[in-house]
Design goal:
The model has no long low-confidence stretch (mean pLDDT 92). Helix 2 crosses helix 3 and helix 8 (184-200) runs antiparallel to helix 9 (235-252). This protein has two domains: 4-38, no CATH class; 49-252, 3-Layer(aba) Sandwich (Rossmann fold). It has 253 residues and is an alpha/beta fold. The chain has helices at residues 4-12, 49-59, 78-85, 103-106, 124-127, 143-151, 166-169, 184-200, 235-252, and strands at 16-18, 21-22, 36-38, 68-72, 90-94, 111-114, 131-136, 154-164, 204-210, 222-227. The longest helix is centred in the last third of the chain and has 18 residues, at 235-252. It has nine helices and ten strands. A hairpin with a 2-residue loop joins strand 1 (16-18) and strand 2 (21-22).
């Protein structure tokens, strides 16, 4: 691995095996003589977040070639890296933190790094362009608090992929030990509430799937695709789709 961060991300992505058994906890210690194998390709992105967005782009058939995009909650830049590799002409990486964006992205002329920036207060004039696409991956805050600002930053045909994290959307009483939400019904409830929030903003729902990998603490996460363009999804179909996606996520992950 090129760095400890990339090694950590690959371990958490579940592609590293120790003596034939998958190991997804980076801090676990082993003896020197164990056999370590990598069963799949090493994460091609600077962080495991890129794997999540990659699935959304594939499943929802989203084309970023030549487009301008926003990475909300950029952190290390997994989403940003994925967008660039999928042809985005420019990516604005926004994060409330500082010094987290990977060096290679920070020095990429296609990337505008906006650190120490709270997305809730960003206006179109602050980024001096209208984006075609936005991807959201935020923690310790509900999507309903950031969506209005993001919507104002995308054009009339703008698209958004939101990573839905149940632990930050459910009530405290429904979050279990270690900050993990395990109950299927809570996942269904969270997704129904997020969908209602998205529809109330005027966006249309275009798709829903689950993240291919769990979050750092072991939470199942979901990817919601919305757009300013009209969609054929009805509220009834959405409710059925939500339960199907939740059931499948619990079976596969």
């Amino acid at each position: 691995f090129q760095s400890r961060e990339k090694a950590r991300n690959s371990i958490m992505a579940g592609v590293v095996y120790v003596n034939g058994i998958r190991e997804d906890k980076p801090g676990t210690r082993f003896k020197r003589d164990v056999e370590i194998t990598i069963k799949e390709n090493i994460n091609p992105f600077v962080s495991r977040g890129g794997l999540k967005l990659e699935k959304a782009l594939d499943i929802f058939n989203i084309d970023l070639q030549g487009k301008t995009a926003i990475d909300v909650g950029a952190s290390t830049g997994g989403f940003t890296d994925c967008m660039l590799k999928r042809g985005a002409a420019k990516v604005i990486a926004i994060d409330v933190g500082y010094g987290q964006l990977a060096w290679e992205l920070r020095n990429d002329e296609r990337v505008i790094c906006m650190e120490r920036t709270n997305i809730r207060y960003v206006k179109p004039g602050d980024i001096q362009l209208i984006a075609d696409f936005a991807a959201i991956d935020v923690s310790f805050i509900s999507l309903k608090k950031v969506l209005p600002a993001v919507i104002n930053l995308i054009g009339p045909e703008g698209e958004i992929v939101s990573l839905v994290k149940p632990q930050f959307e459910a009530g405290r009483e429904k979050v279990g030990k270690g900050g993990v939400v395990r109950e299927k019904e809570t996942h269904v409830e969270v997704l129904e509430n997020v969908v209602d929030t998205v529809l109330e903003t005027g966006l249309c729902i275009k798709g829903l799937t689950y993240s291919p990998i769990k979050g750092p603490e072991g939470n199942i996460e979901y990817l919601l695709y919305s757009s300013k363009i009209l969609s054929d999804f009805s509220r009834t179909n959405l409710k059925s789709n939500i339960r199907e996606v939740v059931n499948e996520s619990h079976e596969k992950l």
